[in-house]
Design brief:
single chain; 124 residues; mainly beta; seven-stranded mixed beta sheet; four-stranded antiparallel beta sheet; 53% strand
Length: 124
């Protein structure tokens, strides 16, 4: 089992930046088996969508809507994941969640247990 706690969300003006953090804790065995991290978001009235995934420093995948603006990273030594969000737009307004792939299974997706996430609101 792992616990994932997001932070860093805030109200920001269009064009601004935010850095989201995801702290990973729990079973050492599970943490050592994490093969990828991802950020997902859910806007009001919309389905949860995949924003960015990191498998390694050389393999990162982004949704088309955030390519060139968002950067996902991971600090394995400190069990952290990050999402740097630049040139934010009102359409980026959502609750952001991180997820961990343990082996071949996305932990939160498989358990449908998402926690509170962190709210990002982009508005003037």
């Amino acid at each position: 089992q792992v616990q994932l706690v997001e932070s860093g969300g805030s109200l920001v003006q269009p064009g601004g930046s935010l850095r989201l953090s995801c702290a990973v804790s729990g079973s050492i065995n599970s943490i050592n088996r994490i093969t990828a991290m991802a950020w997902r978001r859910q806007a009001p009235g919309k389905e949860r969508e995949l924003v960015a995934t990191i498998f390694s420093e050389l393999r990162k995948i982004y949704a088309d809507s955030v390519k060139g603006r968002f950067t996902i990273s991971r600090d394995n030594s400190n069990n952290m994941a990050y999402l740097q969000m630049d040139t934010l737009k009102p359409d980026d307004t959502a609750v952001y969640y991180c997820d961990a792939r343990i082996g071949s299974v996305w932990y939160r997706t498989s358990t449908d247990s998402w926690g509170q996430g962190t709210q990002v609101t982009v508005s003037s």
